[in-house]
């Protein structure tokens, strides 16, 4: 399944810990308790390539875990040959990498995914690749199909009680080099509201999969049975002919937002507008199209290539022919051909309304000035 990278030059605690939940002793409190959400700024205010902590949205389901970093440890067990646990100092001594990735919230798991919330940011995570940790543990080559991740938070979400936040990843995703057991964001240690001291980071997938306050990783044969995989964060599979089959909220579908022009921005008629925005998805965005006023034709924007999993800059130019109100839309398509829907979906195309003023007539001919 993977190459054995050998033992790191630190002393591990091998074996056991399957039942005791001793890693949860690092939890000091849940404070504040309960659901919390902080939306990001509006798209036209997200102008920086890298999103600061102050501008990045926050979603906390059951409350903020307060963790004693000196007692924190990570257990990796389950269907593995060498289960082990490590503390924070040992984790920081391991080979690390940084990955710049968009970070997107799926939105409420309690309502149909018919609205685009544009709850998005772009940050650089630093930590140990999950692939490295799994290469030490050696998952069972046939039975180890999923990696469960446990957070230290617990409580009640939407009237449902859970003793921990638990998610899962298919082993194929877990073994990709971008998935991190992260301890820094934008070069700073993770604070408690960001899931510190350590969280899982799954670039290209919705933020719900990036378990905060990470304490355990467990290789298993089946999907996790916690409420955040069974009750919440499943959606109708669009390719289901019966319209009843669901799929896990994992990969991010193509999405985009227009940063410039700003909503209700005023321009002169008979002029070109220079605009730009961001596009992102689990796969690289290879095309962004622009149209004016719900017209039949789309024009192609210029799209920056993706290096890691960061959001991609696109830029465009459109002509405003005369005075009036206009709507600009952008539509992203990824390398597999998946395209943003026009409406009725959590990733439907963005629309920005702008205004064009009448051009004053010239003194000599009465012609409009351009």
TrEMBL record:
One cellular component term from this protein's GO annotations in UniProt: mitochondrion
Top-rank taxon, per record: Eukaryota
GO MF annotation list: heme binding; molybdenum ion binding; molybdopterin cofactor binding; sulfite oxidase activity
GO biological process: sulfur compound metabolic process
Transmembrane stretches, start-end: none
Domain Moybdenum cofactor oxidoreductase dimerisation: 248-343
UniProt keywords, alphabetically: Metal-binding, Molybdenum, Oxidoreductase
Residue stretches making up the Oxidoreductase molybdopterin-binding domain: 61-226
Cofactor(s) this protein cannot do without: Mo-molybdopterin
InterPro entries: Ig_E-set, MoCF_OxRdtse_dimer, Mopterin_OxRdtase_euk, OxRdtase_Mopterin-bd_dom, OxRdtase_Mopterin-bd_sf
Keyword Oxidoreductase part of the UniProt annotation: yes
Pfam families, sorted: Mo-co_dimer, Oxidored_molyb
PANTHER family: SULFITE OXIDASE, MITOCHONDRIAL, SULFITE REDUCTASE
Record's protein name: Sulfite oxidase
Lineage: Eukaryota, Fungi, Dikarya, Ascomycota, Pezizomycotina
């Amino acid at each position: 399944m993977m190459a054995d990278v050998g033992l790191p030059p630190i002393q591990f605690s091998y074996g056991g810990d399957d039942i005791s939940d001793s890693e949860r002793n690092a939890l000091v409190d849940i404070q504040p308790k309960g659901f919390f959400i902080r939306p990001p700024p509006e798209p036209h205010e997200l102008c920086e390539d890298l999103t600061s902590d102050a501008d990045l949205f926050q979603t906390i389901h059951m409350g903020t875990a307060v963790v004693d970093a000196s007692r924190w440890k990570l257990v990796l067990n389950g269907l593995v040959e060498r289960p082990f646990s490590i503390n924070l100092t040992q984790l920081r001594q391991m080979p690390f990498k940084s990955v710049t990735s968009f970070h997107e919230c799926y939105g409420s798991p309690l309502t149909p995914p018919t609205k685009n919330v544009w709850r998005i940011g772009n940050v650089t995570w630093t930590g140990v690749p999950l692939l490295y940790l799994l290469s030490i543990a050696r998952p069972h080559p046939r039975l180890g199909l999923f990696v469960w991740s446990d957070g230290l938070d617990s409580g009640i979400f939407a009237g449902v009680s859970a003793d921990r936040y638990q998610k899962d990843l298919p082993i194929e995703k877990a073994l990709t080099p971008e998935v991190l057991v992260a301890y820094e964001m934008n070069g700073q240690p993770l604070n408690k509201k960001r899931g510190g001291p350590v969280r899982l980071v799954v670039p290209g997938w919705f933020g719900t999969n990036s378990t905060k306050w990470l304490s355990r990783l467990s290789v298993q044969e089946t999907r996790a049975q916690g409420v955040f995989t069974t009750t919440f964060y499943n959606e109708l599979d669009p390719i289901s002919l019966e319209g009843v089959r669901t799929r896990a909220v994992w990969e991010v579908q193509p999405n985009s937002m227009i940063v410039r022009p700003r909503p209700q921005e005023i321009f002169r008629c008979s002029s070109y507008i220079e605009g730009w925005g961001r596009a992102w998805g689990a796969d690289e965005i290879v095309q962004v199209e622009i149209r004016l006023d719900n017209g039949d034709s789309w024009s192609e924007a210029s799209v920056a290539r993706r290096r890691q999993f960061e959001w991609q800059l696109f830029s465009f130019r459109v002509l405003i022919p005369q005075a009036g109100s206009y709507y600009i839309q952008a539509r992203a398509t990824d390398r597999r051909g998946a395209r943003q829907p026009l409406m009725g979906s959590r990733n439907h195309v963005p629309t920005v309304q702008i205004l064009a003023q009448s051009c004053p007539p010239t003194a000599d001919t009465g012609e409009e000035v351009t």
